[in-house]
Amino acid sequence: MGPEHGRVEATVRGVVQGVGFRWHARQIARSLGLRGYVRNRHDRTVQVVAEGNERSLREFLSYLETGPSSAVVESVDAKWFPGTGEFTDFEVRF
Questions:
Q1: Starting from the edge strand earliest in sequence, which strands make up the sheet with 90-93, in order?
Q2: Is the pLDDT of residue 3 over 90?
Q3: How would residue 1 be classed by pLDDT, with cut points 50, 70 and 90?
Q4: What is the pLDDT of residues 39-75, one digit of tens each?
Q5: What is the domain-level CATH number for residue 77?
Q6: Which of 34, 38, 58, 81 is 20 to 30 A from residue 4's alpha carbon, by CA?
Q7: Which of 7, 22, 26, 35 is catalytic?
Q8: Residue 13: active-site member
Q9: What is the enclosing helix (H) or strand (E) of 22?
Q10: Domain residues for 61?
């Protein structure tokens, strides 16, 4: 875990539940070597917590702004933090 290891916590708003958003996010995150999780929230947003290198995290955020073709993303509110190393994989949480 080098100095480039960071953490992004994001809230995705729009038509992002019931459209395969979490499963696509997991696939993209895993392909980028990121660790963390994605889950639906009761307020109809999607919460994402991802850790990895900054370049991969920025690429992942770019994906989140679009989502799968069935989604309509209105906004992505992302906050950056130092990585914690607490995750071993990227998963969908319920």
A1: 72-82, 5-15, 46-53, 35-40, 90-93
A2: no
A3: very low
A4: 999 999 999 999 999 999 999 999 999 999 999 999 9
A5: 3.30.70.100
A6: 38
A7: 22
A8: no
A9: helix 21-31
A10: 5-93
Q: What is the number of domains present in the chain?
A: 1
- Does the pTM surpass 0.85? The reply is yes
Active site (annotated) includes residue 41: no
pLDDT of residue 76: 98
Q: Count other Cβ atoms within 10 Å, centred on residue 3.
A: 9
**Helices vs. strands in the chain: H and E counts, helices first:** 2, 5
Backbone angles phi, psi at 69, to 5 degrees: -60, -25
Can you give the pLDDT at residue 75? 98
Give the phi and the psi of residue 18 in degrees, each rounded to 5: 75, 15
